[in-house]
TrEMBL record:
Protein name, as recorded: Replication factor A C-terminal domain-containing protein
Pfam families given in the database record: Rep_fac-A_C
Polar residues bias (residue ranges): 1-15
UniProt region (Disordered), positions on chain: 1-27
InterPro entries, A to Z: NA-bd_OB-fold (IPR012340), Rep_factor-A_C (IPR013955)
Lineage of the species this protein comes from: Eukaryota, Viridiplantae, Streptophyta, Embryophyta, Tracheophyta
UniProt biased composition (Basic and acidic residues): 17-27
Species of origin: Stylosanthes scabra
Replication factor A C-terminal domain boundaries: 63-134
Amino acid sequence: MAQGDVASQQITQIEEQPDHSVRDELEGGARPLNSIEEVLNMTDEGECWILGSIVSVESGVHDWCYLACNNCPKKVIEVKNGYKCKKCFRILADPPVRYKLNIIVADGTGCLNLIVWNQEGKLILGKSANEVRALL
């Protein structure tokens, strides 16, 4: 990609976790392994793996996490008697904290700005968002 070019592409989150390991999936060829440059140049939607390094975690004091419903992963809003889920409308007294990390990943062919959600955030940091928040 030439300097100054900007590429933007929607990257969707896979809702289900595979029953096998990443190694099984890479060796079995279920999804191709692509470079970031190849992903940025894709014209069709598809699923693939990217092997890269996290070079930056962009976060401020309050934008690395959010309060979530414990029934679904949606953000809750504060109401007079607690917190209300925007999706299932449940009222919660003490909602859990979930990760929403903005990371930069690079692989030598380019870089991507990605959002990492709760499960992946736990894997990267080795602690739950509630545990990290308690340290602050």
